[in-house]
Amino acid sequence: MGILKGVYRWLDHRLGIWAALRPTLLHPVPRKVNWWYVLGSAALFAFVFQVITGVALAFSYVPSPDAAYDSLVFITDEATLGSVVRGIHYWGASAMVVLVTAHMIHVFLTGSYKYPRELNWLTGVLLLALTLAMAFTGQLLRWNQDAYWGLVVAAQQAGRAPLIGDLLVQLLVAGQTVGGATLTRFYATHVFLLPALMFLLIGTHVYLVLRHGVSEPPVPGEPVDPATYEERYEEILRTDGVPFWPGSAWRDVIFALAVGAVVVAAAVLVGPAELGVRADPTNVDAYPRPDWYFLWYFALLALIPPATETWVILGFPLVVGIVLLALPFLSNKGERSPRRRPWAVGIVGVSGLGVAVLLWAGLRAPWSPVVPPPELPPQVTEGLTGTSRQGAALFQQEACISCHRIAGRGGEYGPDLTHVADRLSREQMTWRILYGGGGMPAYGATLSPAETQALLDFLQTRRGP
Amino acid sequence: MRDLEERLMSRRDLLSGMILGLLGLAGAVVSVPILAYLLSPLLRPADQEWRDIGAVDDFEIGRTVLVTFGEPSPLPWAGQTANTAAWVRRTGQTSFTAFAVNCTHLGCPVNWQEDAELFLCPCHGGVYYLDGNVAGGPPPRRLWEHELRIVDGRLQILTRPLQVA
Questions:
Q1: A180–B76: do the CB atoms touch at under 8 Å?
Q2: Residue A162 binned pLDDT confidence (cut-offs 50, 70, 90)
Q3: Which residue on chain B is closest to A367 by alpha carbon?
Q4: Of A204, A290, A399, B103, whose CB count within 10 A is highest?
Q5: pTM, full prediction
Q6: CA B155, CA B148: separation in Å to the nearest integer?
């Protein structure tokens, strides 16, 4: 014990560890700081976890289009506990997106971004953007069909930008097409560029937290006044403050450990993201979908009218970014408590509900035709004879079922036709089939008159009880 | 005394200005090759090449098939991405059409439905007729076409860069 103490004393004298750490560890925080304040530190823990597992993955991952997928198969199936490491990195990414978002919502609802913490908020907004950029570039590194076609979709969106669209596309995919130069570009971005920026911004963010102190839980009726705020905050720390370590840090540690336990449990029990099918531009059996954190945005783009699309693709990220960056300057004083800020609560509620609904829609994706066309359920076809039987076969062959559902089978892009004969007359159906309209193709040139009649005979059998 | 201090200050200002200027210049010089290297995809000319996709008689009149062919000048490690695909239809003795596989909406691969004679996009339900015209859904324009030519009884297709609506 004596030797250890001696070594510590020697090191501390030469390095000045305690002198450097002391102000950080023991900085006073308001005693009333509660469990909601653990979100930011947990996001930091998750980031550190991501760095460690990311470095581990980089030991085996080969960032080359001809080998990336195989190296991931190796990591997942053959490397010792490789699937767990990939799993932690995958679930850790989800945890980071959730924690950073939740942290931001808490800061917004409690008005903690107001004077003098405007720059805490701004660096936080940039960190959210970087976290999402990490999530996006990370899922591309799987180099499977989702990654390849997802990249094509991203390039198409970037290409909608006026004037610089083509340039953006070429910069994004590193050339004229998604090819040999594309993957290394995203790899370097994901493992060097973005993490370096994040280290820099996290450092600044934490430094600012120490500089301005952890915001006190808001009290209704005690608005922020830039003229007096700092004096009052000092007073709170003096009269009712505790050193961060260990008086407040224990909550952060417990919560971070809980998050870590959930992430590791998910990595072991559920495992990493499916690798799916290898990226192949010549394989058109692809239905690219983003990971869940972008699924709501994917749904938004699917559900808005096509005419507004370019505006939303370009405008939505721009408007959200500008609003978030401008927020602490538009409202940097006044009430902090959510009880006195119904608009803040309303905005969070409406946005949260919107994202949840879109996420749910994105999971179901009812706008996607079912390709290849599935077969009709047997209870629909049994008992059919003659032309109506022929019509049922045509309903599948002509891909009607890809967009129209009957008795629970088929796509949902067009109306459900389970009881169509109750709604539409034979003439109305004929018109729609032959001339199409809206999302419906015109089948006039494809179907012979006999086939049209057979199809109509079949549809006429579709009546409710 | 005060005079001297001011003179000394201006000398310091000059010195720090020179140091910062020198560092800035060095930074600017070094960033030229780095930026040029990173932006090189923009500096490369768009490459288009004719690719052989088979004998004319390998294609049946009135049928649409998926053909695959090489991209122009792929990198040696491009793997599968050195190739691309197109939907080719023989419309007559010597007439062909070829469509890029990308939906004009957001680029997802369209799927040919032989019986229905439609291209279906699995992403947002874009639908095209066999001639590439929009049949329904969100696509803003018809399918992009590849140029084709026949040389000595062989069908050749002209590659094209990733298209953006």
A1: yes
A2: confident
A3: B124
A4: B103
A5: 0.92
A6: 7
